[in-house]
Specification:
The chain contains 10 helices and 6 strands; from the N terminus they run E-E-E-H-E-H-H-E-E-H-H-H-H-H-H-H. With 257 residues, it is mainly α. It has 2 domains: 97 residues, Winged helix-like DNA-binding domain superfamily/Winged helix DNA-binding domain (Arc Repressor Mutant, subunit A), CATH 1.10.10; 134 residues, Alpha Horseshoe (Serine Threonine Protein Phosphatase 5, Tetratricopeptide repeat), CATH 1.25.40. The strands form 2 sheets. Strands 1-2-3 form a 3-stranded antiparallel β-sheet. Strands 4-6-5 form a 3-stranded antiparallel β-sheet. It is elongated, with a radius of gyration of 23 Å. The two termini are 36 Å apart.
């Protein structure tokens, strides 16, 4: 099992328990595993070399890749006591890919779960999917991997998870405001400087009668934006002030995409 959501982790099933063998692999070997986990369709050696070894000499561009793959196989055999000799297959077209018969990847499941959160599914189906997504999304993609190649997919996954939380919150905010509030709080942790999310949280808190929580939400936003040398907009301050006053109706929510 290769986990690439959060810190990269590799485990090997030995009998009835899973053994963590992450430390058996050198950083560059882990990076190769992470790259292939993000590309289940496979990647050609030219792609791997150009992205992971951009400094490779022009006359021997693939030497580092071949050496890393050889070392990875050796580390795998040692860590699994000879049970596994390789988890990377080379296809007929020359591309390298993780062997699905030998390896499972948390990101592959997460992508399937994200599809299950789309609006064309029933609300109940989406709620179950989001619960599983919350269990899987333990942090940024491949934390500890610092190559430029990881930056775009890392941000893409974060946005996809954020959108799943936000979209479902907007779907159920009238029928289940408590659950919607919980989803928005999760969304806030993924987009800490997004003022609109704080506004939506405050509106739901007020609707639920948690007026003192509105004060805390504004204080949290103020503290968070101060990290950037900024402060809440006058609109947000005015909104929170009005939400803390007893009244029968509150300003309507501005839905954003």
């Amino acid at each position: 099992m290769i986990n690439v959501i959060g810190h990269l982790r590799t485990t090997y099933r030995r009998g009835d328990h899973h053994e963590d063998i992450t430390s058996a692999f050198a950083p560059r070997q882990r990076e190769v595993l992470a790259f292939l986990a993000l590309h289940p369709e496979g990647a050609r050696r030219e792609t791997l070399t150009s992205l992971l070894w951009p400094e490779a000499p022009a006359d021997r561009p693939h030497n580092a890749l071949h050496a890393t793959l050889s070392q990875l196989r050796r580390a795998l055999r040692t860590a699994t006591h000879g049970t596994l000799t390789d988890v990377i297959a080379r296809r007929d077209d020359g591309a390298y890919a993780l062997d699905r018969d030998q390896v499972s990847v948390d990101l592959w499941e997460a992508n399937d779960i994200l599809d299950a959160t789309r609006p064309h599914h029933s609300t109940e189906h989406r709620l179950v999917a989001v619960q599983r997504l919350d269990e899987l999304y333990l942090g940024d993609l491949a934390e500890g991997v610092n190559g430029e190649w990881i930056e775009a997919p890392r941000e893409s996954l974060r946005r996809d998870v954020l959108d799943a939380y936000s979209a479902l919150a907007h779907t159920i905010d009238e029928t289940d405001p408590e659950q919607a509030l919980d989803l928005l709080e999760r969304a806030r942790t993924l987009d800490r400087y997004n003022e609109v999310i704080y506004q939506e949280i405050a509106r739901l808190q007020a609707r639920l009668g948690h007026r003192e929580a509105v004060t805390r939400t504004l204080a949290l936003l103020t503290t968070t934006l101060a990290e950037l040398g900024e402060h809440p907009s006058p609109e947000t301050a005015s909104l929170c002030e009005s939400l803390q006053r007893p009244r029968s109706t509150h300003p309507s929510r501005d839905k954003t995409s």
